[in-house]
User: Fold this.
Amino acid sequence: MDKKNKIPFRWCRIFSALIFIAFFLPRFLFAETIELVFWNYWDPKLILPAIERFEAEHPGVKIKNEQVSWGSALDKILVSMANGKEPDICEMGSTWMGKFMNAGVLYPLGSADISDKYFMSEAVTWDDTLYGMPWLVSTRVLFYNKDLLEKAGIYSPPETWQELLYAAQKTNEPRKGIFGFGMNAGEPHVLYKKFMPFVWGNGGEILDEENSFVFNSKETAEALDFYKELQKYSYSEKQDFLDELFKRGKLALNISGSWNFSRYPKEAPNLNYDVALIPKPSHDKGYNASFLGGEVLTVFKTSKHPELAVEFVHHMTQIANSMPITEEAWLNFPADKAILNMPVFREEPKLNVFLKQMETAVHPPIVSEWVELERILNKTVERVMYGEELHQELFAAEHAAGSVLNPSNAQPLSIGDKETALRTSSEVALLSIIVIFLIINALLLYFIIKNRPHYLGIGKLQKKNRILYPLHTMIFLSPWLIIFAVFWFYPAVFSFLMSFYKYDIFMPDLLSFTGFSNYFSLLKDREFLQALFNTVVFVGGTVPATTLLALVLAFMLSRLKSAASFFKSVFFFPSVISIVVVATIFKAFYSPFGLFNALLSIFGIEARAWLVEAKLALPAIMLMNIWTYTGYYSILFLAAFTSVPQELYESAELDGAGEWQKLRWITLPSIMPMTVLILIMNSIRSWQVFSEIFTLTGGGPLGNTNTIVHYLYQVGFRYHNMGYASAIGYVVAVTLMALAYLQSRLLRKKEALL
Amino acid sequence: MKKHFRSKSLYFILMPILAFLYLSPFLYMLLRSFLRFDQASLFNYSPTLFNYETVLTGAKFGHYFLNSLIVLVAVLFANIFFSVPVAYAFSRYEFPFKKLLYATVLLSLVLPYHIMLFPILNIAVKTNIYDTLFALIIPFALNGFNVFFLKRYIDALPEDLEHTARVDGAGEFAILRHVVFPLTRPALAIVAINTVITTWNSFIFPLILTETSKARTLPVALSYFSQGAYATDWGILMAASGVSSLPLVLIFWFFQKQIINGMTAGSLKE
Assistant:
């Protein structure tokens, strides 16, 4: 022990003491406080004042405010439930309530009837018991551009379907860039919100009193027929861009929400527009239906202080505490019906229309399978809009809904039973890893002992040119072995086992062994086959293009004598940027008013909705992918170029070889190993393409951009069928391994690559 | 000679145009981030700092920024520190089950990590690293690709230096530290770049493995900006994108010579 070795120990002691203090001091100081965790989707600055008021009224209570992303909230709540880490108070989308109330995980708030006082009371009531409080509510109305309608000779807003059709037809002038109606596309999750009002207004329903699927009806067919007719005079895009188009005065009619009021007056003060109720089928038939939805506040049963949490829920749903959220962006209104008498809403005619619309707006049915039903509805509407046959699709929807609705009413989750089958099996798996790890180490140890005489000699052994250092091998390899065992091997084995089970996070008790049925159903799953096809197209399109372009670019860069490093930096740059940022930029880049369309218009190509049109979305994402990675691979190629011995070129020049011959016979063969490496890297990456799809299209339109891994994620986390997702994962894994093997065989030169 | 000159001038005209087109989405982001609303044309461009103010003051952007940076640095150093010994052992040593153990490296390259999401989540919860930065560091402390890449690189290195060092009485750790590390430096540059890119781009794991803002990283925070509301505020979104890209842009700007030279020098020998 010399002095050098002592210093780290002293530091360790100080360091651990600091950790100890940092860890225990706060607990000691705040031992008396009760902490409640509150998940919501809003900017903390809108929530915190209300929380502070509550904390002031309840000394010793601390509300921990956590902002969760709206887009991934449902997935995250499911995950937190599966792991027993639910928040105390949670904001939920009103359409999810059926699922949670049926699962029995929410704390009951009493049995009072609140339908007189609150909108969406049906969304929080289950078996006459209240499981949440409506917080914020929103609906959709018809926005119309007065100037455009008057120009077409229409002086009052359309009140019936025929009038709507007529107005859209009259105002639609695509050549001038003006469109009649704004139709949603490319965003599967909002399609039904805009379409269902026509079904509801026509007397149609999704589910009847007994919760059986009655969507396949005459009323729906009529609405779909009408909607298709309307499509002829429509511009199809995402809601964002439709609102933007309307703001620019290029769209005559648009079904949209109150959020526009926070933008239109500021951003387009000259826009002459008004709002009206959504038209009904005809003057003597149906009613002005719309979509009603919003946010509710719930308390989880697992909360340690449910009474206090309920008190907090009541506190937050007071108008005074929800108005700041409304006033920030006018996304939605307080769900308290007292707003009907508030001057803010009454005296503003446009908001008044919203209040009126809310009286006849319909909330989607509250059933535990709503998430799946919503998907079926959206798929049906989307397919019909993209030209599929109507009755066939409705029939398919009925069939799909039947299989969703029937089996799962079976057993709700048993509460308090945290020792689920999954947990037990995961512990077994974790244990087995440790055992495997120990066995490997034991074998290495046995090896050491067996070779000890040599080992003890001078610390090395050379036998037939082999270097044997068992102890060092063990030390050097253990980081990898640990990482591999815990984060690769165990998960792989675990999902492999899962792939033979039917497993639903919501119903862990229903874990059942199903043998190969997950794999067999893959063969019949049209969505999976489509995703597989898309992935093949994606890889087949991007990998050769990227490699070739990178090669060309690298060649051009290698010719540059000056400023080469500058251009290298330029082309390398996109690969440094986070893929989320790149996708976000491209979302704007591909927008109808985006730079891409502007660039194309220079060459006389007309503007397209790149991420929405069925045939364009995947190529658009592929283009983005090629753009992002070409620079990166070209720098790798450039590295390979410089490693080619200059003597080869010099002797070739002496023999009179030209540029092309030098490239063909010297450069290309020399960079073969790098080409192989790039092809493998690129293929492996492309096969797993996910983030781009997730951020840009979510697999739409018509599932045309759905890739295998994205489908896997959807199945596993959105529809929480982990067994099926694992089966998909294994199909991907086997394909990838076969691919890597094939590539290495095809491109193998003298030496074995892998 | 004349032909040579012509082709050269062609590159000089072509390259700037290509470069401009290549960067145009970023230029758009930059221009748009200084605008409050969409503007019809560039001619009445009236820049404002409003979006940047909103981003920098509105949410806990600095916090997310720091989280991302901590994860990046930790994962980077862990990878460099661990992958050389592993690759060295696979390349030079003989031991039982070598092929099998090396197969695990290759296996990790081809297994789609998405099937691991749920099991890894389970482990993270079990080991109590869920919703901490450790959950974003420990599983990624060593990457199979880095091992694979370095092993190939070390395979191609001559063994003479190591043998000489051994004859001189150097221990294996000393050889690793003083012979192998310096020799693999060019390859480590690629390892570092690969690690920086994948870690900074990492989106799904931070999304799944963290739940509160405590351990939230920038890409996840950014996705919150973009999907929080119905109406996308492109100005703020672009400003947030710009701010979250800034650190890597700066790192890239200051170290571009090292980064690119490292890659250029790190040639793969036959």
User: Anything to note?
Assistant: The longest helix of chain B spans residues 2-33. Chain B has one domain: 60-265. Confidence is low (pLDDT under 50) at residues 264-270 of chain B.
